[in-house]
Design brief:
With about 270 residues, the chain is of the alpha+beta class. The chain is built from 6 helices and 10 strands; from the N terminus they run ααββββββααββαββα. It has helices at about 1-25, 25-45, 120-140, 145-150, 175-180, 205-260; strands spanning about 45-55, 60-70, 80-90, 100-105, 110-115, 120, 155-165, 165-170, 185, 190-195. Helix 3 packs antiparallel against helix 6 (about 205-260). The chain is globular.
Length: about 270
């Protein structure tokens, strides 16, 4: 009997080890599934991830072809697209209530910014996320079903969130106003630290904080570009007026000279 108990225990242990190894080996697939499963209920938009390749030992890896769609009512096909996002995850935290991400480095994202009435696509997404967060807090003591939809059963900590080499493309009326100047505007580098470190933060809350910061940087940049264009147009108009005035004076001088040449001026 003891022999069979030992054999049974060995089978259970082997099964647990196998399950753990499968989870670790499929960490990339798990992240891709998590992004595409939890993203849309949080943002109320399409969220896709091409692939995730995470090292088993270091927790470092790359997320490829991230896509955040636009809310309904906006014409541009996406809000954010990024070919490469480098991440480093504390693998020990994956089995705990708080997942710790050491670093997220977003390289060369393309931000599509579009105004609609008194709001824009980013602010609309942030508002959607805030509604999700409010719903999480309302349902936190009732059922796990809502938490399973948004991943709010886990909290998250992001030590460093970095965005570099980003570009902004304008859409709708903004593109009409800015013309070609509204494409490929440089996005200032962003570096957020210690998200969720001092208080429990759900993935939705962390996402709202990050997008809120990006919205401020995008709108600030667009406003600054608008001022620069206005100043440039003002100077061009001023220069054109001066040129017309100078041309008028030159015309008078030339006219007087021609008149004198042909004896038009009499004493």
């Amino acid at each position: 009997m003891k022999k069979y108990i030992l054999i049974g225990s060995g089978v259970i242990v082997a099964g647990l080890i196998t399950a753990i190894v499968l989870v670790i080996l499929n960490l990339g697939d798990l992240i891709k599934t998590a992004v595409e499963e939890f993203g849309p209920p949080i943002t109320k938009t399409e969220v896709r991830l091409g692939s995730a390749d995470i090292s088993v030992l270091s927790g470092s890896g790359t997320l490829s072809d991230f896509y955040l769609g636009n809310p309904k009512g906006f014409k541009m096909p996406s809000a954010i697209e990024c070919g490469t996002i480098r991440v480093k995850v504390n693998t020990d935290s994956l089995t705990k209530d708080k997942i710790i991400i050491e670093e997220i480095f977003v390289d060369s994202p393309v931000i599509s910014y579009e105004k609609r009435g008194n709001t824009d696509n980013f602010q609309t997404i942030v508002n959607n996320i805030k509604k999700t967060v409010a719903g999480e807090k309302t349902d936190s003591g009732k059922t796990d079903e809502k938490q399973s939809e948004t991943g709010s059963g886990k909290t998250i900590q992001i030590n460093d969130f970095i965005v570099k080499n980003g570009k902004i493309n304008l859409g709708g009326s903004l593109l009409d106003a800015f013309g070609e100047q509204g494409m490929g505007i440089d996005l200032p580098d962003i570096h957020l630290k210690d998200i969720g470190k001092d208080k429990e933060t759900t993935p939705a809350e962390a996402f709202a904080q990050i997008l809120g910061e990006m919205t401020g940087d995008v709108t600030g940049t667009v406003t600054e570009v608008g001022k620069e264009l206005s100043e440039a147009v003002g100077k061009a108009v001023e220069g054109a007026s001066e040129a017309v005035e100078e041309a008028g004076k030159a015309g008078e001088s030339v006219g007087g000279a021609i008149k004198g040449l042909f004896g038009g001026s009499k004493e």
